[in-house]
Amino acid sequence: MIDYNFDWGIIWQQPYGPLFLNGIKTTLILSACAWILAFCLGILVSVFRVSSSKPLRFFGATYVEVFRNIPLLVQVFFWYFAMPSLFPKPMELWLYDNISNLPFFLGILALAFYTSARVSEVFRSTLLSVPHGQYRAAYSTGLTPYKTYRFVVLPYAFRLSIPPLTTEFLSCFKNSALTMTIGVLEITGTTAYIESFTWRGLEVTTAASFSYLVITLCIIALMAFVEKKTRIAGMIHQAR
Amino acid sequence: MDWTVISRNIDFLLGGLVVTFQLAVISLAGGIFFGVLLGLARISSRKYISCPATLYIHFFRSQPLILVIFWFYFFVPILFGKPMSAFISAIIGFIAFETAYFAEIIRGGIQSISKGQMQAAYATGMKHHQVMRYIVLPQALKNMLPSLMTQSIVLFQDTSLAYVIGLQEFLRRTSLVDSREVKSIELYLFSALVYLVICLTMSLFVRRFENKVHQGV
C-alpha cells in the first residue's frame, strides 16, 4: 500500500540534525518572547477593561476585538510586508538590509499582539470572577485600593487564571508555526527547508509533529504541577 | 496610499472570499458532525472506544494547524499513492483538526447535563442511543451553542492558513495582487478589515445569543 522508502537516518544526519534542533530552539525562544510580551500587554489591557474610565474601557475593548478578530496570518503579513513601508523609504531599506533577524522580531510582535488580546480576556474574566466579598473584606480591614489589588485580588486571580493561561500559552506555542510564512526557521519552517533539500519530507514532518506533541505534553505536565502547588484552599479543582 | 488598487482587483479578491466561505462552511459541517461522534466516543464507557478517541483529540490539539495542512496536502497522498487537489486536502485537514476541538466542546456540553436526566430517560425504557438522541444531545447542544459559535469564528479565521498550500482563498489572492501591484499597506489593511467585519459581526451575534440563553435559564 505504501510506496515509499523511509530513511529515518536523515533526521540525525549532518547538517539536518543540528538544523532541526535549531528549529526547536527558535520555536521555544519565539513563543517565550511573544508570551512575555503578550502577558504584560494582556495585564495592561485587562486593567483598562475593568477600569472606571469610559475612554480607557473603550480603548481596551477595541484593542481586544481588533486583534482577536483578524486572522493571525493576516497580522503576520501586515507586520512583515506592510508595516516597514509605513516608514520613510531609506529607513525601510535599512530595516530590511541591516536587521538579519527581522522576520523573527516581527513574528514575535505579531504573535504577541494577537496573543495579548486573548490573555487580556482571560485576566478580565478571572478579575470579574473574584467574589465581591474579597474586596469588601479587604477594604474593611483598611487596605487602600492599590493594596487590595496587590495583596488580595491579584494573587487570587492569578491562581484562578493558571489553567486558561496554560491553554493560551499552548496556542501561542502552536501559532508560532505561522511565522514560517515570513521565513522564520522554526520547527515547521525548518521542516519545509530540509524537505526542499532532501525530498525526505515525510520523515522530517513526522519528527516535527512528534516534537510539538512532546513539548506540549511537557508543558501540560509542568502546569498541572504548578496548578497543584498553587491551589487555593477550599476551592474545588476539577481533575484534568 | 492608492486605494484604487482594491477597486481594480475587487472581483478577483471577492472570488477568494467565496472560496474562503466554501472552505469554512464545509469544514464546519464536517467538523461538527465528526466532533459529535468523537465527543460521544470520548465519554464512552467502553475503553476500546474512548481510548483511541482521547488519543486522537490530544494528538490533534497538540499540533499546529499549519503542520496538519502540510500533512494532508503533501504526505498523506504519498502514503496512499493518490494526489489530491489543494481544496480537497485543505478541507480534509481542517475537518481532521477542528473535529478534535469540536469534540471537546461537545464533551463539555454533554457532561454539563445532570445525571438525573439520563437516569429518568433510562427509567422510561429508552435505549442508550435514544437517550442521547432525544434527551441529552438537544439540551447539551443548547448549552454549548455559544462555544460552538466561537469555535466557528476561529475556524473561519483558520481558513486563511490554506494560503500555505497555494489554495486561492481570500488571503492568497490578496498576496497575489500584492506581488503584482506592490501595494502592501492598502491590500493587507483591506483584508484585515474584511476579516474584522465578518468575525466581529459573528461575535456580536454570539454575544447577543449568549445573553438570551442566560436570560432563558
Which key terms come to mind for this protein?
heterodimer; A: 240 residues; mainly alpha; MetI-like fold; 75% helix; flat; B: 217 residues; 83% helix
Under CATH, the topology of chain A can be stated as MetI-like fold
CATH class of chain B: Mainly Alpha
* Ends distance of chain B: 52 Å
Question: Strand content of the residues of chain A, in percent?
Answer: under 5%
> What is the total domain count of chain B?
1
Shape of chain B: flat
User: What structural category do the secondary elements of chain B indicate?
Assistant: mainly alpha
User: In the CATH hierarchy, what is the architecture of chain B at level 2?
Assistant: Orthogonal Bundle
CATH fold call of chain B: MetI-like fold
The poorly predicted ranges of chain A are none
Average pLDDT number of chain A? 88
Short description:
The complex is a heterodimer of chains A (240) and B (217). With 240 residues, chain A is mainly α.
Structure, described:
The complex is a heterodimer of chains A (240) and B (217). Chain A has ten helices and no strands. Chain A has 240 residues and is mainly α. In chain A, helix 8 (162-175) packs antiparallel against helix 10. The radius of gyration of chain A is 22 Å and the shape is flat. Chain B is mainly α. Chain B has one domain: Orthogonal Bundle (MetI-like fold), CATH 1.10.3720.10. Chain B is built from nine helices and no strands. Chain B has helices at 4-8, 10-42, 47-61, 65-80, 86-111, 115-123, 128-158, 170-181, 184-216. Chain A binds chain B through residues 1-4, 65-66, 68-75, 77-78, 81-82, 85-86, 170, 174-178, 180-181, 188, 191-192, 195, 201-202, 205, 208-209, 212-213, 216-217, and chain B through 59, 61-67, 70-71, 74-75, 78-81, 153, 157-158, 160-161, 163-164, 171, 175, 178, 184-185, 187-189, 191-192, 195-196, 199-200, 203.
